[in-house]
Amino acid sequence: MMDYKNLRPATGSGRKLYIETYGCQMNVGDSEIVVAILQKEGYLYTRRPEEADVILVNTCSVRDNAEQRIWGRLSELGRYKKARPGLRLGVIGCMAERLREELFERRAVDIVVGPDAYRDLPRLLRDAGDQAGRSINVELSREETYAEISPVRLDQGGVSAFIAIMRGCNNMCSYCVVPYTRGGERSRDPQTILREARELFDAGYREVTLLGQNVNSYSFGDVDFARLLADVAGVSPQLRVRFATSHPKDLSDEVLDVIAATPNICRAIHLPAQSGSSEMLERMNRKYSREWYLGRIRAIRERMADCAVSTDLIAGFCGETQDDHRQTLSLMREAGFDFAYMFKYSERPGTRASREMPDDVPEAEKTRRLGEVIALQNTLSLESNRRDVGRRFEVLVEGRSKRSEDQLFGRTSQNKVVVFPRGDLHPGDYVRVEITDCTSATLVGRVVE
Ligand code: 5AD
Ligand code: SF4
Fold it and tell me: Among 30, 40, 41, 390, which residue has the least CB neighbours within 10 Å?
C-alpha cells in the first residue's frame, strides 16, 4: 500500500542516507524509489553528505564526459571516509551496470547496484557493513518495475513530480548504451500509476511527468499509452500531465488526438530527432527517415498550433559528412524547435556503433558542428520566445525565482519558464500571465486578471 506519510523524507535518528543523482529524469525517479526502499528499513534521508552513514551516487553512462565527471565526484566523496570510517559509499544506476568490477578495482566504492536490483539494497548495505569488501548486485530483470513502491519525493517544491511508467529500452539505437545498462522494456501496471497520480494530487502536487525511455510503446494488458495518458489526465483537470521521452517512430495520431482533446495534457512534446539526415538515421538504427520525422511534426502542428516541440541532437556521429550535418541544421529550421538538448557523439563501449562503425569525425570537427547546432538553436529559441511576447498563458507557479526574492517562476503548458512579480501567489497556484519580454531561455511577464 502506498501511504501519504511516505511522500516526504522523514526526520529523526538512525542510519543516515545521502544520495546524489546524475543523468536523466528516470534517474531522479529511481533515486526517490531507492530512498523509499531504505526509509522502510529505518534509514533517514539527509541532504548533508558530511553527516551520512551511507552515500549513494546514482550514475549515468550515456556519454563519456558524464562518467568522467562522476569518477571525479566519487573521489571527492571518498574523502568523507577518512573522517567517518564506517561510511559506506555506493554507486547505483547505469555506471554500476556498465563498469561493475572496475568500480571496485579503482577502490572507489563499497557497493555497486544496478538499476533493477534496488530492492536488494538493504541486504547489500548490511553485508557491506559487516565486512570490508565488495557488495554487488547488477542483475537486470525482465519484470522489475518497482510498481507498488511509493517514491519519497526529494524535490523541495511539492508542485511537480515524476512518475516512471516503464523501464528499460528495446530500441537498440546503435550509439546508445541504455539497452545494456537498463535492460529490456517493461511497462508498469496502470492501476499503480493512477494511484500514484491521485496521491500526488491529494498531497498538493499539480503536475506529473510520465517517464520512460520510449513512453509511446507503453503497453500493459489492453492499456496503451493513449489510454494511460487520458486516464492520468482524468485524475483532475487541475493536474497537468507531461510525458517523456517519445520515440518518433511510435508517436501515433491517436496519442496526438488525446493530447489535443485534453486541455490539462501539456502542449509540449519532446521528440528526439538525433539527426536530420536519413542516411545517419539509418546508421543510428532509428527506424525512421527525415521525411517521416517531419511528417510527425506536421501531424502535431495540424492538431495543435500552440504545441511546443523540443528535441535531442547528436553532432559528429560515425560517418557524418558536411552534407549530413547541413541536413541536421535544415531539419532544425524546418521543424522550428522551441528547445533542444545537443551533444557531441561519444563512443560507448559495447554498442553496435563501437563495434561496427569507426568514430571518424575528428574531435575538433565535432566541436565545430556542435557549435553551429547550438548557435542555430539559440536563434530558434529566441524567435520562439519572441513570438510569445504580447500573448497570455496559464502558468503553474513553481517557486521563487533564483535571481530575485520578489519574483516567482513557473511554466507555461509549452514548458517554457516564465518569471513574474510575486504578488499574493504560492507554488501550486495557476495564474494568467501576459508575456512582456524574453531572452532565448526565459519569458518575462506580468500577472493579468
Ligand atoms: N553520444 C552522444 N549523445 C548520446 N545520446 C545517447 N547516446 C549518446 C552518445 N553515445 C543522447 C541522445 C539521447 C540523449 C539522452 O542522449 O541524443 O536522446
Ligand atoms: Fe544516463 Fe541513459 Fe542511464 Fe539515464 S538511462 S542515466 S540518460 S545512461
Answer: 390
